[in-house]
Known about the structure:
Number of strands: 8
CATH topology: TIM Barrel
CATH superfamily: Alanine racemase
Distance between the termini: 16 Å
CATH class: Alpha Beta
Order of helices and strands: HHEHEHEHEHEHEHEHEH
Strand order of the largest sheet: 7-6-5-4-3-2-1-8
Oligomer: single chain
Structural class: alpha/beta
Radius of gyration: 17 Å
Number of domains: 1
Largest sheet: 8 strands, parallel
Shape: globular
Helix content: 25-40%
CATH architecture: Alpha-Beta Barrel
Bound molecules: pyridoxal-5'-phosphate
Amino acid sequence: MKSSDNVKPLEQRLATIQQQIKKACDKVQRSSDEVTLIAVTKQVSAARAQAILDLGVKNLGENRLEGLLEKQETIDEHGVNWHFIGNLQTRKVKELIDRMNCLHSLDRLSLAKEVNKRSTKPVDCFVQVNVSGEESKSGITPQEIEGFFEQLAAYENIHVIGLMTMAPNTEDESVIRHVFRSLREIRNSVAAKNLSYAPCTQLSMGMSNDFEIAIEEGATHIRIGTALAGTEREETE
Length: 237
Ligand SMILES: *Cc1c(COP(=O)(O)O)cnc(C)c1O
């Protein structure tokens, strides 16, 4: 990214991203209505998050409970969808559960069990998949997926709307594309089972540096941080 991009006003950044979304959708003949833009505000202030909402973005993503609480304290929450996108410690579920609309990081059975226990209604979740199987990454491996979904049947408050992944940190587009394509194929195989508790039609994939590839490969939810909200340092520039 050129340094001049960093100081663009928020409106311009949003317009650029919306154009990029449109272009990626056109390329594969998808409608941009199929893609939900989640503004990841983990690196910026509540005021900055409010400014993003004021531009008409309705979906915000946070990766820590503390960050979410801080935003919710000050923001006019009317009509906002809150997405929790980070690694979630089991002991924090209780406080988080009624404060989010969607959990993108369901990555283990013990977390499903706790979400099920603490919620009074079905929670929309994405199962996080570790497509590449790297040991440093959280998520269910492709080999474990089938068994994991079978076990989720026991938890009536878990409602899996899709799969989520993070691409490896690489410049190699073909590697990134392969990961997104694999996630789509796994999604298709789960969706084909027609599980009542796991329709699994959605794909949460794509961040600032790779969302266009993700859209081409079928992303329905993209999680954009630095390209939109930027970082705390940029806010003050
Ligand atoms: C921070 C984060 C993002 C946004 O990343 P950017 O590269 O800043 O767009 C997306 N998803 C998850 C899980 C994150 O933690």
